Each structure stands twice: as structure tokens, then as C-alpha cells.
Amino acid sequence: MTKTFFKSSIFALLIIVATIVACLTSCMGMTDISESGDNEAENRLEVHFIDVGQADAALVICDGDTMLIDGGNSDDSRLIYTYLKKNNVTNLDYIIATHAHEDHVGGLSGALDFARAEVALCPVTQYESRAFSNFVKALKQQGLEITIPKAGDSFSLGSARVNVLACNAADDPNNSSIVLKLIYGDTSFLFAADAEYECETAMLDAGYDLSSTVLKVGHHGSYTSTSYRFLKDIDPQYAVISCGKNNDYGYPHDEIVSRLENADVTYYRTDLLGDIICTSDGKSVSFNVNKADEKADADNETSREMILNTGSKRYHEIGCESIPEIRENNKQSYFGTTVEIESLGYYPCGSCH
Ligand SMILES: [Zn+2]
Ligand SMILES: [Zn+2]
């Protein structure tokens, strides 16, 4: 890893900010569970929301310290391995399985094949699944065991502070999620994992300061999460939804998309943009979705109702003159974009396209 030296004035400022944050968190009764980390000087924060399809994975790099929050499905192990390699992340200060579901824990063994981890957090130490036992096995190979954090715990990552807002708020896996709020200077990120209404209510009732610049939307944009009161309390400027293209669950649900829009939140979706990289200089955040621009252009086309002829494999815009000629049992309506429907083997109709 390269070391760069920054101006002493910025360093002094960071110390002051870190002290204030430390004071504030201790005032709130947060318990410090930091390991004594090696602080590399790289004065900024990067949060990579990695496109792992219908799953979750976020890599956080702060002043050279690193944290991986979830690793996608088991099938994403190779992708996560390659992602860490590409970013030269050979050491993970924290590896976090927010909860035991495969779409979060599955690819973490791939991460551990490449990087050494220092601390592993998860709400449970046992769960009946191959994905989970592979994670535990990979940790064991590094001599690591799972630590179960508590809501109210807090640790540092570089000059950022990470507060545990929830862990095992309820028994079901989604509501057992570890929910984290990372504070870096004036900017903050809330990683809601798959927390649903019950867990959100527990966080609200605990009276934590939930306000955040960026919200990683809970449970892939499902209507069972991001309740109105929770969103209002966080009051984010930006949101990121991690979900798969044309996923079986219909994520993100329309209710959540309109709830974000009504709250004037600018949101980004991994299913449309691929990897989403957010950087913070401690004052404001910026999103880099350039790499995915081509993908986005193709998707810029808005989703809409179309009519399919399942016999001829043609798709038609509503109102196309050929629609009345389609045999009734070959006629099917479809909601989406041309890119999506073409990926399913359909061709445009000659008269409306
Ligand atoms: Zn999930
Ligand atoms: Zn889940």
C-alpha cells in the first residue's frame, strides 16, 4: 500500500473532528470496540456499492483502513475476490456479514480467499446453510471467530467512526441485521442491510441519531423496509439500492421508489448502473457512476408497458397497429425496457420500432 503525506493542518482538523465524534458517541453511550488499527494516511473515504446482482456488498475504504459489508451470493465469491484484488485490498480491518442470508454472506468466503481479515462481525455464530458454513470455515482458516456486536457499540475505521445501530433486534434473519452508521467529517452513511419495519422501529425507539447523508436502502428496496418514519429520521440526500436486474421479487418496489422521490432523495440503483462508487472529502459526497454510463444510457429508456407476441417473439409499443392481429393466447403484456425484453429473446416489431 502507498503512503501519502498530507498537510498538518488537515491532520489537525481530522484529530479535532475525530475527538468531537468520539466525545459525541461516548455521550450517547456507544462502547468502543475498535481494534488498534494501522492508520494509513489517505485522507478520504470511498464507499463502493458493488454490483452483485440480487444481493448486497459494500467495500468501505477510509484513510487506508478497510471494511467489507456483505459479499453477495455464493456465486459472487469470484467477483468479490477479483474486486478486492483490483483495488489492492489485501487486508480487511472488518469483515461484516450483516445477517446469515446467502445473498449477504455467500461471497464473503471469496473475500477471505484474497484478503486477511482482522475482525469478523455477524449477528449469529451458527446458521444452517452451506454459504454460512463456508464463511465460518474461511474465517477459521485465518484463525478468526465471529464476534457478535451489540447495538450501541462503536469502532473506528481510519478517521471515521462506525456506530452499530442494530444487531439482533428480532429473531428473524432480516431483522437480526447489523445496521451501521459511518460518520466521516460532516458526511455519514447508514447501511441498513435487510432491516425491516421491526428493526427500524427498534432503532427509532433507541433514540439514536440516524441522520445520514447517504442511505443504503434496506432489504433491496422492499416495501417491508424504509418505513416513512425511518426515512424521515434519516433524512438522506442520497440513497443506493442494491438489487438485481429483473429480479424475481420486483425490487425496488414502487412504494419505496416513490417514497424516496417524494422525499427529494437522489437515488442510484446497482441493477441499472452497475458498481456505484461514492467518495467523501468529509464535507460532501460525490458519486462516480461513469463506468456504468454505457449501461445507464441503454437503461435511460424508461420502463413501460409493452405487448408481447409469445408466438412470433416480437414486442410492440402500446397502440401499435399490429397488436389486434396477435392471437389472444399469444398476447401478453410486459413492463420494462427494450433492452430487458431483448435480453429475453424478443425482437422489435417492424412497424412500431
Ligand atoms: Zn438480502
Ligand atoms: Zn436477508
A few lines on this structure:
With 353 residues, the chain is α/β, with parallel strands linked by helices. Helices cover 27% and strands 27% of the residues. Strand 12 (214-216), helix 7 and strand 13 form a beta-alpha-beta unit.
Characterise the protein shown here:
There is one protein chain. The chain is an alpha/beta fold and 353 residues long. It has two domains: 8-298, 4-Layer Sandwich (Metallo-beta-lactamase, Chain A); 302-348, no CATH class. It is built from eleven helices and 20 strands. It has helices at residues 8-27, 77-86, 102-105, 108-114, 130-141, 197-206, 228-234, 254-262, 270-273, 293-300, 338-343; strands spanning 31-32, 45-49, 57-62, 65-71, 91-96, 116-121, 146-147, 153-157, 160-166, 179-184, 187-191, 214-216, 238-241, 266-269, 276-280, 285-288, 304-309, 314-317, 331-336, 347-348. The termini are far apart. Residues 99, 101, 173-174, 194 line the site of one zinc ion. The site of one zinc ion has 5 residues, from loops.
Poorly predicted runs are: 1-7, 21-28, 36-41, 291-296
- Main beta-sheet annotation: 8 strands, mixed
How helix-rich are the residues, as a percent range? 25-40%
Kindly report the CATH topology of the largest domain: Metallo-beta-lactamase, Chain A
CATH homology superfamily name of the largest domain: Ribonuclease Z/Hydroxyacylglutathione hydrolase-like
Strand content range: 25-35%
> Which strands sit side by side, in order, in the main sheet?
1-8-9-10-11-12-13-14
Q: Average pLDDT value?
A: 88
CA distance, first residue to last residue:
52 Å
Shape: globular
Overall CATH architecture of the largest domain: 4-Layer Sandwich
How many strands appear in the DSSP assignment?
20
What count of structural domains? 2
CATH class of the largest domain: Alpha Beta
- Using only C-alpha atoms, the radius of gyration works out to 22 Å
Helix and strand content put the structural class at alpha/beta
Assembly type of the chains comes to: single chain
